[in-house]
């Protein structure tokens, strides 16, 4: 895993955005896996800026979001449909028919999840997957003890995740208990994975994911099994990493490394 440590959230967001832009420049019809939450907001803002100021083109891009709350209509201000539209999709030129977000209101979850998996395959698989990490080490809504081979499915949220996400709702009682989420196995099939984390609250989860054992108790640790994953963190989220000095050294020496 490549670990890229930035001083600030803004610097981290910019570095990750450059990585996504590089994929887009090489593959204009790339399939991007999108994440919600507060972490990727800066990355999305930077991609929007690159689109508006530097002509970064999304006209051939296809997207798949990781997850959605069960029971929230797309118009609900805390639905991930709403979040993605407000924070990203309405500011760039992705054709609406190329946007995929799990449905939180389908009448048949099993059939929907199977269709979602199938659709990812039909579109050629995900080229670059953006991820956040929960304070319990989850990726998407793959809570501790999720199978590392899991596929898109209905999931019951952990109480700690409901607590973490209560800040976005009027009260804790309003936070949905269920979600539909891509599985860890689905995520691991992406060709490239970028995990972002900022803030002191994520430091333990990041250290466990990057340097701990591969375990379903920290589903982000499954990224250790992926051949092309990068972890973008700010100073605070990096504060529990034992190998920090090495990660910084690798980045310092990167410009002079033999080209692959
Ligand atoms: P956050 O959520 O970006 O809002 O911290 C991350 C996650 O739970 O995956």
Mind explaining what this structure looks like?
The protein is of the alpha/beta class and 260 residues long. The chain is built from eight helices and ten strands. It has helices at residues 9-26, 41-54, 80-87, 109-122, 159-165, 184-188, 203-211, 244-253; strands spanning 2-6, 31-34, 62-65, 67-69, 99-100, 128-131, 153-156, 178-181, 192-197, 229-234. The strands form two sheets. A seven-stranded parallel beta sheet has the order 1-10-9-6-2-3-5, with helices on both faces. Strands 4-8-7 form a three-stranded antiparallel beta sheet. Strand 2 (31-34), helix 2 (41-54) and strand 3 form a beta-alpha-beta unit. It is globular. It binds 2-phosphoglycolic acid (PGA). 2-phosphoglycolic acid binds at residues 37-39, 132-134.
